[in-house]
């Protein structure tokens, strides 16, 4: 065996064994603590409205800001991980989440809640979650797919347990003391981060905390400073800074892919439009049920039902979508799940009885499982893997914008009309229109591609910017871990 092969084998020793499974357990807890946490905010919606004398629109800004920052902070988290490592990012995120919730228990106005529980806790959850997902790529090579699938079950567990715990604590001690306790619970993200120690190479140097490489613009600027050129040509220094800024945007926000890749363009626009209505039931379902005479404990149970069913349906959906029958057709399966999610909202319009709401939650959970399992798999299908990280950056930033403005705009409509049915009308409109747009657009794009292939001889790179299944070879154990990729899960 060559010296390089021996070194690679030694470097892979900490992976897929031993402490890696403790890291996986920490990742499961992290996803439950961070991504699962916003599911409980609807339980406090009515109490926050009464205490702060706020409208539906004003109150809904609080969960909207939290979820938007949680999804849109990916590029910032990626920079933090590259500079300081995954362990630091997770522990910093846990500290910010805890401080944000503790501070929110002392808020005197709803606007202060936007800053503490919304911005600070949302940003901390983003750091902890995304750095926790990234570290799995370092600890697992052979079992990486299994590890990510097992870690995603933490989201469903959090979705199930947070609302039940929230309703119990709210009944016993009020929302302020509950937020104080939540701050202590979220500090456990720091414990999970402490478990994620850096993977050591055979030479003893940490693998996951690389020294950040200098940007080309910075190197050019340093060369000019050493030559004394920056003092005589300040415009050159300004140009190098502009170049470095452009390279940073190109690295984390792939606008060039958005302009050239029609599949990515259609999918990003469709998902961004879909997010305008996707989060509405999670924010307004509990207050809608309470307003229609459902007991508060039973109303909180509705959210837990959605999370409990997700635990079982999401893995099955992932296995089903991986079958060869759906090769190259996952976008249509995804569109079908979005369509089902939109149609299910009409159940709430027809009846607000508890039994009808349970049926709604079951159907919604099945549709949500399909959306959550397929969102990033479809993105991998439409984008080349060497640009996936930057494509994901733009994707998450754009969807966070509509996640931010969707619930407050719908809350404003409810305030004007005094009718909660408009929540579900709005959600259905955005989801159904997004599903039809994506399904029909990809169908037309596929037909157009086939006509082009039939009319002329395909070039070597003809499939570069079309929707197709991109097979990826399994990564060998000797291969080094992947670059930092920031991933969010719905």
Short description:
The protein has helices at 3-11, 19-34, 45-52, 56-72, 74-84, 86-104, 110-139, 144-186, 188-195, 216-227, 229-232, 234-252, 255-260, 262-278, 280-291, 296-321, 330-350, 354-382, 388-417, 421-455.
Report what the structure shows.
By secondary structure, the protein is mainly alpha-helical. 76% of the residues lie in helices and 0% in strands. α16 packs parallel to α18. It is globular and about 65 Å long.
Topology diagram in text:
Layout: H1 3-11, H2 19-34, H3 45-52, H4 56-72, H5 74-84, H6 86-104, H7 110-139, H8 144-186, H9 188-195, H10 216-227, H11 229-232, H12 234-252, H13 255-260, H14 262-278, H15 280-291, H16 296-321, H17 330-350, H18 354-382, H19 388-417, H20 421-455
Helix pairs in contact: 2-7, 2-8, 2-9, 4-7, 4-19, 5-6, 5-7, 6-7, 6-8, 6-9, 7-8, 8-16, 10-12, 14-19, 14-20, 15-16, 16-18, 17-18, 17-20, 19-20
Residue runs with pLDDT of under 50 for 5 or more positions: 1-12, 208-231, 461-490
Largest sheet: none
| Beginning-to-end CA distance, first to last residue | 45 Å
Mean residue pLDDT = 80
Order of helices and strands: HHHHHHHHHHHHHHHHHHHH
The share of residues in extended strands comes to under 5%
Which descriptors would you attach to this protein?
490 residues, mainly alpha, 20 helices, globular
């Amino acid at each position: 065996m060559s010296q390089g092969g021996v070194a690679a084998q030694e470097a892979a020793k900490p992976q897929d064994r031993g402490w890696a499974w403790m890291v996986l357990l920490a990742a499961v807890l992290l996803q439950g603590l961070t991504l699962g946490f916003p599911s409980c905010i609807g339980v406090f919606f009515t109490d926050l409205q009464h205490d702060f004398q706020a409208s539906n629109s004003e109150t809904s800004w609080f969960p909207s800001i939290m979820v938007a920052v949680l999804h849109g902070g990916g590029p910032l988290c990626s920079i933090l991980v590259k500079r300081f490592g995954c362990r630091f990012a997770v522990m910093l995120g846990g500290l910010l989440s805890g401080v944000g919730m503790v501070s929110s228990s002392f808020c005197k106005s709803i606007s202060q809640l936007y800053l503490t529980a919304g911005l600070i806790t949302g940003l901390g959850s983003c750091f902890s979650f995304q750095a926790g997902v990234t570290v799995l790529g370092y600890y697992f090579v052979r079992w990486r797919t299994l590890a990510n699938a097992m870690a995603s079950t933490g989201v469903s567990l959090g979705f199930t347990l947070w609302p039940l715990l929230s309703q119990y604590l709210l009944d016993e001690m009020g929302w302020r003391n509950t937020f104080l306790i939540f701050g202590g619970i979220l500090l456990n993200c720091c414990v999970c981060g402490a478990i994620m120690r850096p993977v050591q190479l055979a030479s003893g140097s940490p693998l996951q905390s690389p020294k950040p490489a200098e940007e080309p613009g910075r190197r050019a600027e340093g060369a000019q400073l050493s030559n004394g050129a920056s003092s005589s040509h300040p415009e050159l220094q300004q140009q190098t800074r502009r170049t470095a800024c452009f390279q940073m945007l190109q690295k984390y926000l792939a606008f060039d892919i958005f302009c050239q890749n029609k599949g990515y363009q259609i999918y990003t626009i469709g998902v961004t439009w879909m997010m305008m209505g996707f989060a509405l039931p999670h924010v307004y379902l509990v207050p809608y049920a309470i307003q229609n005479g459902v007991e508060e404990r039973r109303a909180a149970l509705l959210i837990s039902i959605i999370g409990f069913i997700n635990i079982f349906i999401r893995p099955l959906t992932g296995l089903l979508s991986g079958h060869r029958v759906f090769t190259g057709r996952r976008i249509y399966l995804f569109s079908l799940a979005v369509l089902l999610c939109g149609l299910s909202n009409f159940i709430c319009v027809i009846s607000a009885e508890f039994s009808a709401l349970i049926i709604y939650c079951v159907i919604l959970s099945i549709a949500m499982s399909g959306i959550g399992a397929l969102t990033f798999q479809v993105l991998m299908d439409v984008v080349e893997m060497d640009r996936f990280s930057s494509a994901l950056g733009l994707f998450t930033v754009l969807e966070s914008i509509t996640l931010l403005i969707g619930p407050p705009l719908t809350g404003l409509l409810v305030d004007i009309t005094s009718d909660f049915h408009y929540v579900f009308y709005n959600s259905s409109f955005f989801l159904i229109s997004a599903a039809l747009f994506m399904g029909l657009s990809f169908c037309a794009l596929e037909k157009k591609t086939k006509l082009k292939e039939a009319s002329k001889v395909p070039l070597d790179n003809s499939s570069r910017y079309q929707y197709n299944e991109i097979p990826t070879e399994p990564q060998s154990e000797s291969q080094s871990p992947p670059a930092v990729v920031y991933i969010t899960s719905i």
